[in-house]
Amino acid sequence: MTEQVLESGTKEIRFRQAIATALADEMRADKSVMIFGEDVAVAEGPFKTSEGLLQEFGPLRVRDTPISEMAFTGAAVGAAIMGMRPVVEIMFMEFLGVALDQLVTEAAKMRYLSNGMLSVPMVVRASCGSGLGFGSQHSQTLENWVSATPGLKVITPSDAQSAYSLLRAAIQDPDPVMFLETRVLYADRGPVDTSLKMEIGKARVLRTGKDITLVSMGQMVKVCHEAIKISGIDAELIDLATIVPWDRQTVLESVKKTGRLVVVEEAPFSGGWGSEILAATTSKLFSSLKAAPFRITTPDVPVPYSGTLEARYIPTAQDIARQLTESLKNGLTPKQWWEIEGLSS
């Protein structure tokens, strides 16, 4: 694992290396932490997110599993109840479909059903998202599969630092956590301070501004940074990071200051997580709003396999900049790109 040590003492490493480093640091700190998954041991993970772990911690704590997500997720639930802290790796988020019962019906409900006598301190990690040409069956984000499940926390980091710090927080949490890793970010480099702690449920204000509040997470955070530069708008950028529970206080305080809200999602328009943000903001701050909040999303179509179409599918910095500019200019909700091009009624 190559890394660059910066003057401040932080390390410049890739997003995927931040994941592996967080896993290693937690396994060193707590002998109850173990890893289950397909190809996580000998192959060091399909995306090299468990690099070096088998060599250091051995096959009892770093376990390759059969291709049976239901079986090894269920095994993790049992191990967690018995005092271990298992981390399950789901190669692609879509593969969680065959194991949802173990996560949302068993793990997420165990504390409630046992009247607090049992807890399930487990983490389910899954790669997700578009941008690498994996096609419609391997490129969805699917936060809405798990975000409406009481008892389950849901996290999506946006850079190497949040990947490291939030994964450690997730492993230390006494209840089950769904940890969604945006696959296109695995190769991105960034500074990581291993002493920096982050709280689950606490958003990061990455840029302060007075004109408009921009809320995003995952790979869209980087795209929003570029959109702000293109537009020249003094936007406040918030990396939500935790979808459940989301940081209402930080978002509402920002919108109360700017009077405007835009949520940018790498998810289809229907059923996106941003709808909850808009609903709560409109309900709480209706009289303070200068314009109607709106969302910038992907269209309600499968993720295309073609590289050209896939790049068109997700929100681009140029289109986000267009919509921000139009909103500030006339106070109206801009049309999505597919509406402008006549691809949707």
From TrEMBL:
Swiss-Prot/TrEMBL cofactor(s): thiamine diphosphate
CDD domains the UniProt entry points to: TPP_PYR_E1-PDHc-beta_like (cd07036)
Keyword Signal: no
Record bears the keyword Oxidoreductase: yes
This protein's UniProt keywords: Oxidoreductase, Pyruvate, Thiamine pyrophosphate
Residue ranges occupied by any Transketolase-like pyrimidine-binding domain in the UniProt entry: 13-188
Pfam families tied to this protein: Transket_pyr (PF02779), Transketolase_C (PF02780)
Ranges in coiled-coil conformation: none
Protein name: Pyruvate dehydrogenase E1 component beta subunit
Organism of this sequence: Candidatus Planktophila versatilis
